[in-house]
Amino acid sequence: MSEEMQGRSRRKKEGEDQPFSLKKEIISWLQIIVAAVVIALVLNNFVIANSRVPTGSMENTIMSRSRVIGSRLAYLKDDPQRGDIVIFHYPDDESIYYVKRVIGLPGETVMIEDGKVYINGSDTPLDEPYLAEPMEGSYGPYTVPEGCYFMLGDNRNNSRDARFWENKYVKKDKIIAKVLFCYYPISRFGAVK
Length: 193
Description:
Elements: H1 3-17, H2 22-47, E1 48-53, E2 66-71, E3 85-89, E4 97-104, E5 109-113, E6 116-119, E7 139-143, E8 148-152, E9 170-171, E10 175-184
Antiparallel strand pairs: 1-2, 2-10, 3-4, 3-10, 4-8, 5-6, 5-7, 8-9
C-alpha cells in the first residue's frame, strides 16, 4: 500500500475513533448560521434591494402589493436612464421608499400637455407603451436640476408621483436601486422593462 493511501486510511480511522462532541456540533452549526446571516446582510445592504409596491401606481407594469428586487450596484458607474424603474427615498419623507419610472433627466425640461409628456420642447411626445391608460391633464413645465431626476408612475391617473410632491425631484444619491424583476405575485411581467 502506498504512503498516500496509508495516510488516508489513518486519518479515516482517527475520525472514526473520536467520540461525538455536542459542543463541537453546536459550534459548527453556529458558524454556518453566522456566515449565512453575514452573507444575507451584505447582499441586502450592498447588492440587492427588496421592496413592496403597496398601490396600483405602477400598474400594469408592477401590480398592487407586488414585491420587487432591485440592484444596488446598477448606478455605481452608470446614471439612471429615462424609462428605468427605480426604488428611491420619497423626497417629501425620506423614511418611505417609492418605486417609480425615471422620466426627466438632469437639466431637462419636462412638460405634460393633454396627457402627453414632452422633453425639452420636442414636437414629439415620449413613446410610453407601458402606460395603463392615456394620461389626463396638463402639468409643468418642470426643469430638472443637475444631479436630480423626475419620476412618474405608469398608472398616471392613479399615481401620487412628482407632479403632486412638494419636493418634485429625486437626487441621484437618494436612488437606492434599479428594479430588475417582480417576484411576488408571479405575473406575466416577471422581468421589469
